[in-house]
Every structure is written in structure tokens, then in C-alpha cells.
Amino acid sequence: MLYVSQMQNQQVWDAWGQPIGRCADVLVGAVDQNFPPVKALLLRGDTHANGDRFIPAVCVSSLYPSITLNVPQDKCPPYTPAGDELRLLDRVLDRQIVDTEGRRVVRVNDLQLARVGNQYCLTGVDVGGRGLLRRLGMEGLAQALARLLGRSWQTGIIPWEDVAPLHQEDPLRLRVSHDRIVQLPPADLAAILNDLDHHTSAALMETFNNETLADALEESPAEVQVAVLSHLEPERAADILEEMDPDEAADLLADLPEQTSAHLLTLMEDEDAAEVRALLIYPEDSAGGIMTTEFAHAPIGLRAEELLDYLRQSEDARDDEVMYYIYLVDENHRLRGVISLRDLVMAAPDADLTQYIDLDPVTVDPYTPQQDVAYLVAKYDLLAVPVVDPESSILLGIVTVDDAVDTVLPTAWKKRLPRFF
Amino acid sequence: MKRIQRMPGWLQRILFYLSILGPGLITASADNDAPGIATYSMAGSTYGYRFLWLIVIITVGELIVQEMAARMGAVTGKGTADLIRERFGVRVTAFAMLCLLLGNLGTTIAQFAGVAAGTELLGVSRYITVPLAALLVGFLVLRGSYKRVEKVLLVLCLAALSYVITAFAVRPPWGEVLRQAVTPSFSSDTSYILAALATIGTTITPWGIVYMQASVADKGMELERYRFTRLDVMFGAAWGNVVSAFIVISTAATLFVHGIRVETAEQAALALAPLAGESARYLFTTGLLGASLLAASVLPLSTAYAICEAFGWERGLDQRSREAPIFYGLYVGIIVLSVFVVLIPGIPLFPIMWLSQSLNAILLPVLLVLVLKLVNSRRVMGDWVNSRFQNVLAWGLTGLIALVTLVLLASPLLN
């Protein structure tokens, strides 16, 4: 196997055995392919007279054990970079990249090349300890030691197709890698953005569409959310807030300076802004602060089939992300009963639903502490609790189980430490 | 937590300043940690006011160095180790990280030695207090109530202020003090050079650079706000060194004049006797413990983080230990090793505290040279590279430390 670290600074010989300079970089093209071909070498002259120049790959006869050309030096045509090449030593080696298979940020210890047909291609990225030892010149020693101990030694090589390089200077190539990155689950995406430095993650997020960014932000710690949003244009920030769940958007707005959040609220669409405003009234650690206002509800008294039809037409039901229960309300939007989605689906189309409806469901009021909500959820094995105004019994929203248990699980301490540690 | 609420403008402004005043204050307080207090006490009691001129130079040096670290953090958003790896490759990084690890291990040992010395002064055996302190530090950091405790420890660090009061109370010859502060004095004596190196190494530290850059990068601030950070850094460094100078002055005025050369914590505490009388040892222990625990919380963590960052290993307290074995291994390893060293029977605590700082100074130029190359690279820093003035001072400082180290190596031959 050939690694770029073995080529770094190596003497380059022409067809007549003349030393013509040292290899300063390796350029590959078509980086969105699985095996990007080597396009050229950057040659650094030994003297000032012949400075840096590119050697096209067609002139290279071999890269290892020594780099030799198949033509004499003066017959080698000049190579003009097309602009889409990736400089491996300068831009990839020692930098951080995203391992889209392992869903994490890794550091490139080495890059693996292989001969495919008559050209060299980039095949993989070495992120393991073996690459590190190779760079330190201790690979052979460590290998001998491993053999002595009778241990097989895993290489930490990730295929090129599973990584996404990050270059903030280069929007063109970012697009390629970003296609691979946006398909990750939002929680992993958030973890990756959190692992990267601010500038790189900001550059990466620039390329996301509003929905992807909103999903990733919902999974991010508060500081990251604030940092991201304050870097965006206000109009885009407002669009992203609209995409987010109202309760998450409210939390985020509460963390922003008052002027900024007020401005963003005016930029949001009226309907979304109203929902968020309603949530902002309540303390962040109360039922009102963590509830979502997007949930499935329907008028009471419908038959099973009618109810299902109603839900299919309902805008609110469409916005409900989980829909464990359907909340039945009267004409004044007062909560009258709850039916689980399971019972509704299992019921005969024309069945009277009364027998399935829980007419006295467990409810909380918007100022119930989050701890108590979590307790109720656990005690009654609920997937969501309706939040009801204690005086008018109007249904305000629901708290889903994931939001309720957030405080109980020991994840909250993370936020108190600097991200760097 | 905060919702949209009516907060008066002045309160917001104060909160804003407080949120920025942070890394500077912590590194400054850590200047006067156990090894710091030990070094300055030793220097003041052994050489009188002769080290004051060095402290003046070091103050300028620390301002320059910490400002560079903060600027790199603000501009790049990356950690020191990250930048070193991207710019210089694996070999240089491995060497730099080894130096960082050695220096920080020495300093962590010194922190726990400080805990041992401080509590033994109160008559409690180090075999009880040092493991307790290690557990406390580990618990605080891993269970995450660290942020709150940090404030308590910072308050304890205020005990170092008692040196300032003592210095005024004992009425040192101020004319002499000022004269020594501006007159360089040299000696090729080995112990003098070691003491000089310790004074440098306890103030300008490798971990201080790494910690400063990480905290600033972590805030992800806009560069327009960088001037506030610079203010914090300048304020912190200056403040820490004013306290350091007063430790030297008060030990010189109380101990040096009576020919007491501090070799134990007991003697060092005597410097506070004119102020606190019989309770001097309590005051001394308070300051020692506060600063030691603060530094012992930050040091192993920032070391483990920097090393894992450089080599791309999983890191951070939001990872579980199985996901980041090297990170947690380093963190626990540094603490455990430090505790074991301090618990070796008969090991002299006070010399450990200050000699570890000489080691720190000897290792410092490695990091300084790399930082200087980075901070002068336009590819890394854009328009925020060092000015010529900053470069002259920073390279001067690096050269000075290297020179003193060379003199140390040559001193057996010279004498």
C-alpha cells in the first residue's frame, strides 16, 4: 500500500535519473467519486531558480518506492490546475474530516493511494494509530512488536466514499461532502457540528437547507444554537425558527438578547410567531415551557372512520410529529377526552368510540414543574401529557415523553461545562 | 433560566462584562497557585527583592503571550493543539504534546503537593487529604458541578490578597523595592538560575496558553468583540503579577531580613504572621488550597483535551468513558500519578512545588516557538498576525528563557 506520507518531500527523478525537485503535494480530481484519480504532483525545486510547478499524472511512471517520471524533465508538459483538484497534503492531511459511516469527526493521519489500471487513485483515509506511528517512523517497530505478541493489528482506514472533507475556503467542494453529511440523523449531525470549530461548522451550516439546519439545531446545546443563529441573516434565522418545533424555537429565542428575539419574532410568519409567543410566557422548566402546540386534536363525538378522515384533513395533525394520542375537544377547545392512536386504528370503522375514550385523562397545568411532569409520565406510563389551562380547561399543548424526561436523565450537566472540555 | 424578561440595560452590560471576564481571571488566579506561592516565597526569602525586575519583565511577557493565545482562539476558533497539528504535522505535534504533558504533569504534582503542605500545616496527614482532594476534583469535574465550585475556589484565591496587605503592613523600604524592580541583577549560581526559571515558569505556562486559547475559541465570539477579551486578558495577567510581586516583597521584608530561607510550608506561612499573627497558617492554607484545587481541576482536563485534540482521539466530557478511553485515561492517569508522587514517604513537598516550575520554564520555549510561527502565519491568522512590536517582545522572551536554560546547563562549568 502506498501512503501520501511516504511521498511527502520525496525526491522526484525524471526518466534519465536526474533529480528534479521534491514532491510538495499531491492533487486529486473528481473528489466526489469513490476513487478520485491523482491528477498532478506539486514539485518544489531545490533551488530558487526552478520554483514550484505541477507535474501532470500522465508523466509519472511510479510513485513508490521512488517517484520517477516516464519522460525527461524538459519533455514534461506543464499542468494547469482546473480548479477542482484537492491538495491532499495541504488540505486533507492532519485535518479534521467527517466520517459519515461512523458519524463522527476524525483527524486524517494518512491517506492511502492505490494503482488502479494505469493511474493512481485515492482510496482511503487512515485515521488509526498505525497511521500515526507511520508518520513518527515507528510503524515497522510497532508491527514487529505486535507480531511478537501474536496480536493482529487493525488498520484504521476508512474508504474515501465514507468521508466528507471540510474546507471552508472552498464552497465548491463543500457541496460534495455536504451531500453525504446532510443525510446523517440530526442528533449525529449536531454532535459533528459541535465537535468542529466555530468557523468550520458555520461554513458547513451555510450550505444546509433550512429544514436540515432546524433539525440539527433542535439537537444542539443552547450555546451552539445561539452562536449559529446570531451568525445568520435575520430573515434566514426567522425561517429556521419557523421550521423548528415551537417549544424548541421558544427556548432558543429565550436565550437570545431581547432585542434580537423581538426582531426575529416580527420576521416570522404570524401563525408561527403567535405559537412561539404563547410558549414564551411560561418558565423554561415548566410544562408550558416544554410543551409543543403542534398536536392532533379533533371534535368529540365522531365515529372511528370520521375521526380518521378528520385527522387526514387536519393541519395540526399533520404537524404532530409522533401522534401517540388524539385529543378530543369541544367547540371551545376544552379538553373532553383522549383516545390512543392504537385504539382508534383497531376500532371498527363505524364503531362508537366512547368505550375507547379516556374521559378523565391525566393533565397538567402550564406552570407544573418539569420534574412533576416527568414523574406523572413515568407513573402512568404515558407517552404524552396534555397541558390544560386550570381555569378554562382549554387545551394548550402537550408534553411528549422525550421532553419530559430531559431533566431527569443526567444530560443536563453537559451544558454547564465549556464545550472544549 | 431566562425567558424574555425586563432586564435593565446597565445590568445587561454588567452581565456581558462578567461573561467575558473569565479565562483571564482564572489563569491569573492560577498564577498564584501552590507552585506559584511556593516559588515566590522561596525567591523572596532567599534573594530578597532581587527578583522584582524579573517579575516586571515576566508581566510584559505574560501579557504578550496570553494575548497571542487569546487572539489565535478568537480568529481561528480552534485549539492550540489543533493548529499545531494542522500546520506542523505529526512529529512536531508529538514532541510538543510530550512537552505539554511533562510540564502539566509536573505542575499537577505541585498542586497536590500544595494540598499536602497546606493541610499538614493544620495537622492533617497528607495520606488523608491528598486522596480526598483528588476524589473531590475528579468528582467536581466529572459530575459537572464544577462551574459553581469554580466561583468558590476563585473566592478562596482572594486569600492571596493578604500578601498585599502584609506587604504594606510591614513597611518595607519602598525606595529599595522600586530600585530593585528596575535594576536587573544576575548570578550564574545554579540555584539562582533555577529560581529564576521557576519564577518564569510559574507565571507564563504552557497550559495557560492552551487553556486561554481553548476558552476564547469556545466562546465563538465575533472578532469585533475581541477587544473586550483582550481587556480581560490584560487585566488578568497584570493582576496576577501584582499579587506575585507582593508575595516576593512581603516574604523578603519578613523572612529574608531575618535570614529565614523558606524550605517548608511552615516557614512560608510565617510571611503572613505580621498580618494574621497566630492565624497566619490558616490564611496561608486557605489561599494554597483554593488555588491548588482550582488549578488541579483545570490542568489535567485541559491536558487530556489538548492531546486528544492533536491526535484526533475522541474527547470531551460529553463522551462516555468507553467512547473516549484515551481522554479519560489521560485525565485519571495524570491525577493518580500526581497523587502517588506526593504520597511517596519523605518526599520534600516544598522543593517539588517550585522545581516543577523550573521544568515548566525549560519546556516553554518549544510551545512558544510554535505559537509564534502560527500567530505570524497569514494563512492561519489573516490580518490578525503579530505586529512587529509584539514579535520583538515575544521572540525576546523566548530567547531569554532559552538563554537562561543554556546558562543553567553551563553553570556547573562556569563555577
Structural summary, described in words:
The complex is a heterodimer of chains A (421) and B (415). With 421 residues, chain A is an alpha+beta fold. Chain A has 3 domains: 1-165, PRC-barrel domain (SH3 type barrels, Roll), CATH 2.30.30.240; 186-281, Alpha Horseshoe (MgtE N-terminal fold), CATH 1.25.60.10; 297-405, CBS-domain, CATH 3.10.580. Chain A contains 18 helices and 19 strands. Mean pLDDT of chain A is 83; it is low at 410-421. Chains A and B meet through strand 10, helix 6, helix 10 and helix 11 of A and helix 5, helix 7, helix 11 and helix 15 of B.
Task: Supply the key terms.
heterodimer, A: 421 residues, alpha+beta, SH3 type barrels, MgtE N-terminal fold, CBS-domain, 3 domains, seven-stranded mixed β-sheet, four-stranded antiparallel β-sheet, 18 helices, disordered C terminus, B: 415 residues, mainly alpha, Amino acid/polyamine transporter I, globular, disordered N terminus
